[in-house]
């Protein structure tokens, strides 16, 4: 069966004309279980051969639509509407031809463009510092150092704490930590550049993989007789991958080194999905599959979970894909049969056909087994979070919790729609609780559910099978990876987190691409649609570049959040801490005070503010702040120790000793506190001795040495002079006194 060039239907995606060697054109096998998502059910293998025109060195597609029509007519297979499903799929994709030129459709150039765009968006972050959580997860994480046995990584959380510890957040990501350790070893230390370069490369790899994933989700599975998968939706898959590559909400994952957990989790998530698709690659008989690839897909899902907890959700996406694309389950048809009480639903044959029930069993057992092992490793106890981390989860009213959770979902949706309002942290009062249905913000969650219900109705009830499949898979990719962060199954330690949108954003990009294709198909203003799409790509790219610059240093990152979340106490705290580290105590005090004002129970801000006030000799206020901090959080060891230091400076030695001992009680391994306690006891003993024998020169001389070492130079000078007045011949005291005087003179010259 042959076709002339005039018979070619322009709606089908084709390879562009280009100079090529004369390859062997292989047949394209239209095997029923995998044709464009299962659009017809004949078990006969039909071949549509690609025509090669030597005169122009151009590859052209045959009239696949005509072929499908003939096959469907001859075999009389499937319910009404399947014959035109492939045609509709091709029409949807071809409607984007004014946006995606044919020269970009070959797989190499499509993937090159997506990879290049992803690298350009975030290349600016390559020489950034370790910022925010990077300090705890990398710089202060002992699991990255060579002296820590590799086996410890399997018993520690993401931050290097033992999973059995009460303070552990139970974030179990040993494979991600292992890559950090490899970075540390290969770069010879904590050099941020190597860490950032790996993150940028991982994002590029994820984006390239998504070209293949989107081609399956949009166009279904179709393989040549040689086992090569065909991309039947090249324009849609390329546009969706580009939208994902340049989405600004990904900046936290790419520019923040700890975001590697999300990048690695997404990488193995996609590999698991593509592996599941390969289970149907080498079969010509309807319903057969490769159990090896199904099991490998489950294994890759487990690997994804060892990088980031969201990874295990790929098994849910695989199940939906299998049911809709491989199993060809028609939800609309099932609903109609239910309404008619059709007895054919009682037959289990539908599930048994094609081994669907067997594959669902494998996925369910694999997922349950992986989760059970994860639960056992975690210590069977859930992580412990505070109210400031996730205030809605601590609300007494179920209604208040439900309203706020849904409001958080709407904010996540808004970040996908309009990613210009970005912040490194959304907790600590950034989003005040909705306490009644009269709050105007309820409109946001109402709008979210209005859109979701509309999409779900279209996904389940549309007469267009292609539309049902795309919407269902898009919603599945959007919702399923987000479930671990939804608060539905367990409490999470954040309100909104841009990093958890990395995978769900792929589903959003898929739905957005489908929407653009629908607009292009039903409007004559195609140039306007093209301009809109190109404008979104350009603006998002620009936003990525700007946001990547903000993530290069903590100063820019923290200050960028002040305009987004001015009510966030943690933002002010981090700005203040950054200023204090640079020696600007006056400005730091201002931000610490604002943090305490916004959150009167913010013990860490109280502790840091108390330390600065202590150094400025404002001891009374410092003691009040630190006392309040330990009253709010009685096991706050650092605040107890700092309170002891202040009490020691106030000559309240007994109270200081009690504070030190309380700090050690809550933190057994606390060398600084042991040192301070020893210092306190030695000072108290010398003062007690001097009180009993005030004219003993050695008592004053030794106390002066103590003050000299502590940096209390005025007190050291006073007791050196008393000692020398009582014993002018003490050579050691003379020498130490001379050292002190030279130091004081140097300090005086420096001040002048």
TrEMBL record:
Positions annotated as TPR repeat: 569-602, 603-636, 697-730
Transmembrane annotation, as ranges: 200-220, 232-251, 257-277, 289-306, 312-335, 356-375, 442-461, 473-494, 500-519, 528-549
SMART domains in the record: TPR
GO CC annotations on file: endoplasmic reticulum; membrane
Gene3D superfamilies linked: Tetratricopeptide repeat domain (1.25.40.10)
EC number of the protein: 2.4.1.109
A Gene Ontology BP annotation from the UniProt entry: endoplasmic reticulum unfolded protein response
UniProt keyword annotations, A-Z: Endoplasmic reticulum, Membrane, Repeat, TPR repeat, Transferase, Transmembrane, Transmembrane helix
Pathway membership: Protein modification; protein glycosylation
Residues of the DUF1736 domain: 381-453
Catalytic class of the enzyme: transferase
GO molecular function, one term: dolichyl-phosphate-mannose-protein mannosyltransferase activity
InterPro entries the record matches: O-mannosyl-transferase_TMTC, TMTC_DUF1736, TPR-like_helical_dom_sf, TPR_rpt
Subcellular localization: Endoplasmic reticulum; Membrane
Pfam families: TMTC_DUF1736, TPR_16, TPR_8
Membrane topology: Multi-pass membrane protein
Family the entry assigns: Belongs to the TMTC family.
Protein's name according to its UniProt entry: dolichyl-phosphate-mannose--protein mannosyltransferase
Organism annotation: Bos indicus x Bos taurus
């Amino acid at each position: 069966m042959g076709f002339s060039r005039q018979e070619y239907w322009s709606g089908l995606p084709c390879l562009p004309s280009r100079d090529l060697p004369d390859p062997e054109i292989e047949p394209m096998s239209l095997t029923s279980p995998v044709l464009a998502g299962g659009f017809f059910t004949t078990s006969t293998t039909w071949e549509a051969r690609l025509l090669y025109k030597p005169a122009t060195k151009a590859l052209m597609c045959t009239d696949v639509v005509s072929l499908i029509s003939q096959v469907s007519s001859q075999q009389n297979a499937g319910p009404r509407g399947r014959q035109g499903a492939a045609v509709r799929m091709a029409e949807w994709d071809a409607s984007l031809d004014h946006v995606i030129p044919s020269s970009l459709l070959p797989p190499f150039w499509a993937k090159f463009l997506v990879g290049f765009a992803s690298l350009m968006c975030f290349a600016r972050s390559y020489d950034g510092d370790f910022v925010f959580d990077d300090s705890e997860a990398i710089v202060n994480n002992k699991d990255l150092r060579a002296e820590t046995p590799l086996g410890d990584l399997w018993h520690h959380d993401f931050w290097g704490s033992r999973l059995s510890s009460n303070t552990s957040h139970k974030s179990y990501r040993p494979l991600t930590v292992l890559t950090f350790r490899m970075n540390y070893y290969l770069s010879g230390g904590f050099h941020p550049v190597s860490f950032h370069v790996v993150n940028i490369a991982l994002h590029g790899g994820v984006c390239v993989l998504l070209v293949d994933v989107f081609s399956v989700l949009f166009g279904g599975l179709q393989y040549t007789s040689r086992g090569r998968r065909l991309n039947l939706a090249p324009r849609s898959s390329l546009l969706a991958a580009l939208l994902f590559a340049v989405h600004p909400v990904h900046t936290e994952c790419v520019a923040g080194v700890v975001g590697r957990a999300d990048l690695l989790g997404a990488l193995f998530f996609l590999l698991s999905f593509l592996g599941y698709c390969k289970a149907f690659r080498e079969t010509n008989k309807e319903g057969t599959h490769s159990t090896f690839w199904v099991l490998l897909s489950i294994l890759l899902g487990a690997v994804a979970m060892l990088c980031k907890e969201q990874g295990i959700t790929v098994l849910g996406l695989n199940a939906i894909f299998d049911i809709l694309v491989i199993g060809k389950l028609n939800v609309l048809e099932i609903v109609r049969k239910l309404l008619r009480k059709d007895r054919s639903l009682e037959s289990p044959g539908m599930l048994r056909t094609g081994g669907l029930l067997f594959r669902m069993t494998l996925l369910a057992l694999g997922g349950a087994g992986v989760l059970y092992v994860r639960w056992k490793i975690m210590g069977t106890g859930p992580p412990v979070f505070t109210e400031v981390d996730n205030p809605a989860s601590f609300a007494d009213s179920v209604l208040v919790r439900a309203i706020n959770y849904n409001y958080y979902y709407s904010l996540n949706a808004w970040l996908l729609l309009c990613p210009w309002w970005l912040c490194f942290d959304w907790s600590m009062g950034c989003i005040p609780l909705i306490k009644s249905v009269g709050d105007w913000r309820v409109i946001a969650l109402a709008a979210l559910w209005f859109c979701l219900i509309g999409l779900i109705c279209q996904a389940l009830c549309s007469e267009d099978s292609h539309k049902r499949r795309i919407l269902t898979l898009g919603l599945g990719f959007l919702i399923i990876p987000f479930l671990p962060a939804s608060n539905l199954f367990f409490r999470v330690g954040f309100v909104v987190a841009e990093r958890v949108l990395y995978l769900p954003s792929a589903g959003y990009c898929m739905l957005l691409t489908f929407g653009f294709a629908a607009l292009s198909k039903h409007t004559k203003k195609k140039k306007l649609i093209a301009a809109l799409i190109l404008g979104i790509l350009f603006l998002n790219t620009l936003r990525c570049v700007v946001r990547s610059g903000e993530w290069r240093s903590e100063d820019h990152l923290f200050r960028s959040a002040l305009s987004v979340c001015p009510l966030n106490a943690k933002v002010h705290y981090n700005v203040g801490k950054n200023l204090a580290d640079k020696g600007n105590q006056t400005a730091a005090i201002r931000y610490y005070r604002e943090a305490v004002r916004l959150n009167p129970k913010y013990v860490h801000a109280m502790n840091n503010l108390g330390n600065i006030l202590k150094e400025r000799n404002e001891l009374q206020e410092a003691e009040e702040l630190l006392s309040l901090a330990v009253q709010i959080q009685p096991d706050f060891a650092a605040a107890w120790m700092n309170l002891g230091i202040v009490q020691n400076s106030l000559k309240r030695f007994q109270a200081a000793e009690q504070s030190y001992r309380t700090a050690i009680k809550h933190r057994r391994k606390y060398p600084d506190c042991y040192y301070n306690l020893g210092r306190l006891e030695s000072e108290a003993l010398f003062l007690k001795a001097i009180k009993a024998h005030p004219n003993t020169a050695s008592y004053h001389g030794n106390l002066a040495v103590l003050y000299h070492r502590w940096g209390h130079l005025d007190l050291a000078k006073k007791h050196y002079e008393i000692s020398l007045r009582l014993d002018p011949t003490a050579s050691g005291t003379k020498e130490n006194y001379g050292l002190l005087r030279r130091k004081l003179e140097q300090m005086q010259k420096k001040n002048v």
